[in-house]
Amino acid sequence: MEKMITISNLSKSFGATLALDNVSFEISKGEVHALVGENGAGKSTLMKILAGNVKKDSGSIFIKGEEVSFRNPMDAVKAGVSIVYQELSLFPDLTVMQNIFNTREKRNLIGIVDNAKMAKESAKILNSFETEHKISPYDRIENLSIADRQVVEICRALSFGSQILILDEPNSALTESETLSLFKFIRELRQKGITIIYVSHRLEEVFSISDKISVLRDGKYIGTWDIKDTNKKEIISAMIGKKLEEVFPPKRKLANTNKILNVSNLNKKAALKNINFFVREGEVLGFAGLDGCGIENIFRILFGLEKNDSGTIIYDGKKIERQKPWNALKDGWALIPAERHAQGLMLDWSIKENLSFNILNKISGILGFINTVRTSAIVKEYFKKLNIVTTSMSKKVSSLSGGNQQKVVIARWLATNPKILILNDPTRGIDVGAKAEIYKIIDELAKSGFAILLTSSEIEEVLELSDNIVVVYKGEIVAKFDGGTVEKPELMSYITGAFLGN
Known about the structure:
CATH architecture of the domain at 3-239: 3-Layer(aba) Sandwich
CATH topology of the domain at 3-239: Rossmann fold
Number of helices: 18
Largest sheet: 6 strands, mixed
Helix content: 25-40%
Radius of gyration: 25 Å
CATH class of the domain at 3-239: Alpha Beta
Number of strands: 20
């Protein structure tokens, strides 16, 4: 197969930090080549060099056998390389077609911008991507959903006619159906001979869309595998430098402790039907199911963010009547949301401000002034407990890696001294190494007596972290399992509805 990209002995340093250390590997024409690794492995630096945003220190890059050295992104585009970053870079007050053809507007013979031509060419690109909501070339970006904006980003990159397309977490804001549409589109691009470099933390999708996968670790190239010849276990081991068995904590023996939560016949019209379960102190109860199956509703009802139509919730020996979030917080509930950026953090606030936000009553004096000494003591305590990596507590939380941001969310809730934790996809969007640290934190919290309700988009996490598992299918609990005995195929048959035999 013809080599599209050859990377030879590429190195790059930022001050004393060696981001890329003598990296060499090849990417063939017309393949989907995944690039994976932990945060700090060097993926972003390598992609930015390929896209002309960062200059290499040493080494060589060849495209179709010809050595290239990009001074800026436009040099890369001229050489046939386009990149779609995870962070959106569209102009919200412009239309879709104005964003797609920004700085290279189509003009007629007398030099006037030809909106009709731009609209036609934009529509052609947009129509090749099946979105849930039809996007018009005349739509203003500010009126589009985040998912639709991501689609526009991809279409803008494609409009350059590039032969190499770099996708950095391209479906981070897409729905499940839009992700499937994206994958279909990627396969069509591959058939046309376009080379895709696919950067993602989500190994499940990497294995579903990629032909080959390369691993970076600590700035070094570890290896490249054909997808058909490897598995997630091998790739994870390559990413973190240790066996997968060492990632998840060993299974604990669950003690016969008190039932801190008992839910009976919980119902919500069109969402939940006769939900029954209980959780003991020190237990991790896993919830498994597809998106929209009702798990989100259960968690939101328990924390007071939604109302149930009927049913009984007994918490810590008392019946909960009309739960409200502020009462849940006061009574020892903690909810770690799936969307930490939208629901869990104030990104423009400092790490210290984020961590102390839920405990203002603890750190305020009689007159309402914040006790800075008390605040710093609590913040330092949880920094140490959760091993949050930063040079200063005064830094914006947006400056942290995804894993450390998630630790701040968890620390913020642990500071309230809760009795029960609801963990909604707690490792979404973070790398394998950070996930291992979160797994350890969950295990230690359970050992110390916390009752934990857990769900995850990665079924292995539910299997490995849970003492017991309930499966929710179309708003009903259809199975309950001992987390130490059920196997993935059996669990998946209930999650997907295959157990029904249709």
